[in-house]
Design a protein that fits this description.
7-stranded antiparallel beta sheet; 15 helices; 31 strands; globular
């Protein structure tokens, strides 16, 4: 295998190389859905929990009844469209605490959380020895079966070598009409958190020079996959990696080994590192990825809400057992993960596939600077200074052109060292030789008095007065003032509040009446005119984070509509496969989209690319967001939730809150004795805005608006 350069980014597989028509086009990669199974080892780490202290007994009822507060861990995104992803800071269900006794993940109060020293917000690990997926470093399986944890896969199977005690994913034997492929999908748009860092252990092995494994990555806002280069370490470079135990280390490099190792990793950042293994009587050519070494792939997905990662196989062209010369996630059966709760995350270092994601808020508001904190408490540590208070030695006069009554604009008194520590504008002014520096007074022309006073108040109190009553226009004006006075924390806070005004929390917008038997969950998004206006404001005020967040909002809006539409589809639109087919090839238990809907659709979009056709409207009408009314009932105690297919649980889970509740359901109490839950009640959804960009959907007519 030759070393690939970062510029060699074009995938070899035609299915991955083709450019998609739009961002919701799956490009022929038909998503597979596998309902959660009742496996003996598969658990739900973040299921809802009851707070017994919130229980209230209703004595006036004809039968004993009580209400309790239910804590629902909200997902931060979705894995392969259907599976909720949770931030690792979320505590694991209390009933699972007994599995973590002695683990560093268990706190003293019995709450199971991830170790504090972890730098990753979301993590998915796959162990081929156990054939299970693990989430956030917790050694309890959340998905059983390698294929159940993929967005789509074809012509692959899990091979178990009982003679060599090894297991791995390999192409199917005798398959010549399809190139083996597997795809994983991550999307964190639901939590409005972008990818800050992405590291991944992508283990593979090659035992023939004509065999190949190719890894590709695609941000969800992009229409193309990019190939991830693979660098095969030279024997000299391999000596600095202690994970490689089959190469001759030669002379000792104890003094500079860490420095040289760091230099090699930095030099090949964005590439997968591999090495040539020793030949044997069975294989003359051996290449392995460096064990447990995570490649830094941040450059491909930084600043995105989500991405897809794909691996394609090229079996060897000659020799016996050519189909198994290319392997992924090769792992010894002697070192499984299951049952290693006391080891915690250390056990997951043996996983052949390990995806680690660090997330950040759309707009990060920095904490109060140390210099400003010291300035506020310099004179009296037990008492903070205040604006217009005693000891003020600097005066700020504002000439607001819109205010003709000067007496209503009294000068603002402040402390020189506070202004110097909290505002780059005043720091430069006071350091200069200008007259304002010596006179301790400055006049601000053409600026609004109220926002200027709020900005100076913010330096002292770290809050904006009457913040709850401010609207979008107020925050835009305050953003301009923070930009002109160079107050970094207020500048970032204003950007965050503007974005919050544009994209309100969907769950906070929950409306309706339980007496009516239905709820409305409007996912409010602004139109493109508002977006373009705010992009102009961001350009004028230097709000780069706001501009990037608005770009992400525009790019991911159709993706979110598409995924929500898929997740909200009734179970009847899927064709279940027999659950007892447990072969090692393509007969895993699961469900595919019905052939009638999938034919010709997934090549150009999940529900037909005409859903977002730039030339026409939306033939399927507005997106329906079903939601059921009633209390929370667990499927184990509420009848009617297990489908006739056998082990499958229902996937039609009652809309947004139903999806957040995982395998819990929102059900009407009077219908608990029926065979099926009540029919879902659809709610209104936003109109798809007019598209001025190539990837945005067209507007709907006024007659279709709510």
């Amino acid at each position: 295998m030759n070393t690939q350069t970062p510029d060699d980014a074009e995938p070899t597989l035609p299915l991955l190389r083709q450019e998609r028509e739009n961002v919701v086009d799956f490009g022929g990669l038909c998503p597979l859905h596998y309902a959660p199974m009742h496996y003996p080892t598969e658990v739900e780490l973040y299921e809802p929990s009851f707070d017994p202290h919130s229980a209230a007994l209703h004595e006036n009822s004809r039968q004993p009844a009580a209400t309790v507060q239910v804590k629902v861990p909200l997902p931060c995104g979705h894995f392969n469209i259907w599976r909720p992803l949770h931030d690792r800071r979320a505590p694991v269900a209390a009933r699972l605490a007994r599995f973590f006794v002695g683990s560093p993940a268990l706190q003293r109060d019995g709450r199971v959380v991830s170790p504090n020293n972890s730098t990753w917000d979301s993590r998915i690990s796959y162990s081929s020895a156990d054939d299970e997926y693990y989430e956030n470093g917790h050694v309890l399986p959340v998905i059983n079966g390698w294929k159940h944890g993929t967005l789509t896969a074809r012509s692959l199977f899990r091979k178990v070598e009982h003679d060599w005690m090894m297991t791995y994913l390999a192409p199917e034997q005798g398959n010549s009409h399809q190139q083996p492929l597997a795809v994983w999908r991550f999307n964190y748009a639901e939590s409005r958190r972008a990818v800050e860092r992405f590291h991944a252990v992508l283990g593979f092995s090659l035992f023939a020079e004509s065999a190949a494994v190719e890894w590709c990555v695609r941000p969800l806002s992009s229409r193309r996959f990019r190939r991830i280069p693979i660098h095969v370490l030279t024997p000299e470079e391999a000596r600095y990696f202690s994970e490689i135990d089959s190469v001759d280390s030669g002379e000792s490099h104890a003094d500079d080994s860490l420095e040289q190792r760091a230099h090699i990793i930095e030099q090949y950042c964005g590439q997968i590192l591999a090495y040539r293994g020793p030949s044997s009587e069975y294989n003359d050519y051996v290449v392995h990825s460096v064990p447990a070494l995570a490649a830094d792939l941040t450059q491909y997905v930084e600043g995105e809400y989500g991405f897809e990662l794909a691996v394609s196989f090229v079996p060897a062209s000659e020799g016996p057992d050519a189909w198994q010369k290319a392997q992924v996630a090769r792992q010894s059966l002697h070192h499984p993960i299951s049952g290693r709760m006391r080891e915690g995350e250390d056990a997951l270092s043996r996983c052949g596939l390990d995806f680690r994601i660090k997330l950040r808020e759309d707009i990060v508001v920095p904490p109060v600077s140390v210099e400003l904190t010291r300035a506020l408490t310099a004179t009296a540590p037990e008492q903070r200074l205040c604006m217009d208070g005693p000891g003020c030695n600097f005066t700020i006069c504002v000439r607001d052109p819109e205010n003709t009554v000067g007496s209503l604009q009294p000068p603002i008194g402040a402390h020189e060292h506070v202004l110097r520590a909290g505002s780059e504008y005043f720091a430069a002014l006071l350091e200069s030789d200008m007259a304002e520096s010596s006179s301790k007074q400055v006049e601000l022309d053409g600026m609004p008095y109220g926002p200027v006073r709020s900005a100076i108040y913010f330096l002292y109190a770290d809050s904006v007065p009457r913040e709850e009553s401010m609207d979008l226009n107020d925050w835009i004006v305050l953003l301009d003032v923070a930009s002109r006075l160079s107050i970094p924390r207020l500048h970032q806070l204003s950007q965050a509040r503007i974005l919050g005004e544009v994209v309100p929390d969907t769950l906070a917008a929950l409306q309706g009446s339980s007496a009516e038997g239905s709820y409305k969950v409007p996912a409010a998004y602004p139109d493109l005119e508002t977006i373009e206006l705010l992009q102009g404001v961001a350009a004028d005020t230097g709000a780069h984070d706001l501009a990037q967040a608005l770009d992400r909002l525009v790019a991911y809006y159709p993706i979110e509509v598409c995924e929500n539409r898929i997740r909200s589809s009734p179970v009847g639109e899927f064709d279940p496969l027999p659950p007892h087919h447990m072969g090692t090839h393509d007969h895993d238990p699961g469900t595919r989209f019905a052939a009638g809907r999938a034919q010709g659709l997934f090549g150009r979009g999940p529900f037909g690319h005409h859903d977002f056709d730039l030339e026409g409207g939306d033939p399927h009408g507005p997106v329906q967001v079903p939601l059921m009314a009633g209390p929370v009932i667990h499927p184990e105690i509420a009848p009617g939730f297990a489908h006739a297919g056998g082990n499958h649980r229902g996937v039609h889970d009652g809309g947004i809150l139903g999806r957040l509740l995982g395998n819990w359901r929102l059900t009407n109490i009077p219908n608990n004795g029926h065979a099926d839950p009540p029919a879902p009640q659809p709610g209104p959804v936003p109109n798809i805005p007019h598209a001025t960009h190539a990837h945005m959907p067209p507007p709907e007519s006024d007659s279709e608006s709510d």
